[in-house]
Amino acid sequence: MAAAARAALPRPFLPLHSSSRHSYRLAIPPSPAPRLRGGGAATSVTAAAAPLQQQVTTGRLGDVIEAQQFDRAALNEIFEVAREMEAVERGSHGAPSRVLEGFLMATLFYEPSTRTRLSFEAAMRRLGGEVLTTENAREFSSAAKGETLEDTIRTVEGYSDIIVLRHFESGAARRAADTANIPVINAGDGPGQHPTQALLDVYTIKREIGTLDGIKLGLVGDLANGRTVRSLAYLIAKYKDIKIYFVSPDVVKMKDDIKDYLNSQGVQWEESSDLLEVASKCDVIYQTRIQKERFGERIDLYEAARGKYIVDKKVLDVLPKHAVIMHPLPRLDEITADVDSDPRAAYFRQAKNGLYIRMALLKLLLVGH
């Protein structure tokens, strides 16, 4: 679509919290009078933009900032679109998708990434969009000259239609969303959250186990610094009869804010030091690496924590036959290589699901369902 026509499109504003100007929920019913993201009245749309306007008025996400922003209805719609994206990626719909043709996505990564950055870029290209990218933005962008995140966002939004941000500071994604007038996706903010990882994790559990209600989930490894496990705990709490086991070295135990949230949602949780016992009870073992980069100069604490809980053949021997092992990757030695050949090792299928979830999010954010 021509840039002028796209610029004329209104951005729906469907506030969830009075303290924020951004929408966090999918708007399923058509909206006859959508509002601009900044709160202004909708403007008229040219005839050339009419087909896209019909899609937009079914409702779009505002930003993707934290896992707890989603309700079950929104999750169901995201997962439905993700299943459609599996077919698109396989090419079963004939010609390559052009649903995001004419849209530009900017990826700003202030921390290293392989799977998240590449899967977002692949998702955009699979849907016919284009990508503006920067890696190691902390060192090789104007941030190295002292530019604020807010100024960077204001500049980059002038070049793109959506921003995917990974940052080393917790809360950075919310700051970016409060600044931008285009959608912002949190691709990880320090030890804070990683909501798109949580979405692909829950999608993977659904695809592998067949259900989400009644799941017994073991979270293992670095639970204090791992933004993936924090976001997953927030998201899985949306489902019924969940039981979570926390297995971690003392120095990286799950923080109290997550425990308090689970209590408030009526989710059962238990801390354990026995990985084999927990594995024998679980539908999902979610292993994570001990994150050396979060320990600063306390390498002694890192060395004390690393290697304490390893998923190996002994764990496979007690793991139920229907269960799966997941990992957000990258791994070091916390899952031994001989586990990879077991059909319950789901972590590479999990990584592939990241493509479908991110394709779904980009479609929903930019053109709606």
From TrEMBL:
Enzyme class label: transferase
Keywords for the protein's UniProt record, in alphabetical order: Allosteric enzyme, Pyrimidine biosynthesis, Transferase
Domain Aspartate/ornithine carbamoyltransferase Asp/Orn-binding positions: 213-364
InterPro entries: Asp/Orn_carbamoyltranf_P-bd, Asp/Orn_carbamoylTrfase, Asp/Orn_carbamoylTrfase_sf, Asp_carbamoyltransf, Asp_carbamoyltransf_Asp/Orn-bd
Gene3D superfamilies in UniProt: Aspartate/ornithine carbamoyltransferase
EC number, as in UniProt: 2.1.3.2
Biological or metabolic pathway of the protein: Pyrimidine metabolism; UMP biosynthesis via de novo pathway; (S)-dihydroorotate from bicarbonate: step 2/3
Keyword Transferase among UniProt keywords: yes
Domain of life: Eukaryota
One Pfam family here: OTCace
Molecular-function annotations in GO: aspartate carbamoyltransferase activity
Role description: Catalyzes the condensation of carbamoyl phosphate and aspartate to form carbamoyl aspartate and inorganic phosphate, the committed step in the de novo pyrimidine nucleotide biosynthesis pathway.
UniProt family annotation: Belongs to the aspartate/ornithine carbamoyltransferase superfamily. ATCase family.
NCBIfam families (alphabetical): asp_carb_tr, PRK00856.1
UniProt protein name: aspartate carbamoyltransferase
